[in-house]
Amino acid sequence: MSQRPIDPSGPDLKVPVWFEWRGIAAKRVCSPSQLLKRVKKASAQVAEHHPTGFICVCLDNYSMRRNRGVVSAATGNRYFLKYPGLRSAVAWIKAKSPHTLSLVAFASLARWERRRDNPHMEMSSLSQITIFSKEESERERLTEFFAEVQRGFDNYWKP
Question: What are phi and psi of 96, to 5 degrees?
């Protein structure tokens, strides 16, 4: 998608970022109560294989039942702000996981629209990237890296 090589080795994957291989630990979170536990496991997995890397979590089976509004970027922002345990996971990474460069969280929102003549489902794939590097140059490189990945994704999925 972004034309970068990907190596499917430990932790789960590794990808080059500015001429260095970085580890990626991917975890599926089926319950909000398991988020911090999964983040800690991913952090250990990255530390075991690489000096620095990324944690990616897929947030499954969580519904914001109170939020019946349209599926939008604002809805996505509220989703991540209200996801139980996400702030604790970010705080733990900042305090205890200096080798973690960023936390990438993925989720999906779906909503049935039943008021019209033709019912339909609105769906949105959400992602949130939190960059932890304290160095300005590293933050800039990571921002460009994630922008490149997004451009590749957008080009790949054009209709």
Answer: -120, -5
Greater confidence (108 vs 98) lies with 98
Give domain status of residue 17, yes or no.
Answer: yes
Q: What is the mean pLDDT of residues 13-37?
A: 89
Domain-located, residue 140? yes
Confirm whether 152 is domain-assigned. yes
Rounded to the nearest 5°, which phi and psi values hold at 148? -65, -45
Q: In terms of C-beta distances under 8 Å and separation of at least 24 residues, what long-range contacts does 144-152 make, across chains too?
A: 145/17, 145/18, 146/102, 148/2, 148/4, 149/1, 149/2, 149/4, 151/2, 152/1, 152/2, 152/3, 152/4
CA atoms within 13 A on the CB side of 107: 28
Residue 98 lies in a domain: yes
**pLDDT of the residue at 32:** 87
d(CA 58, CA 29): 6
Range of the domain at 50: 13-156
Lowest-pLDDT range, 24-33, 57-66, 98-107, 148-157? 57-66
Q: Number of structural domains, the chain?
A: 1
CA torsion 141-125-128-49 (nearest 10°) is: -70
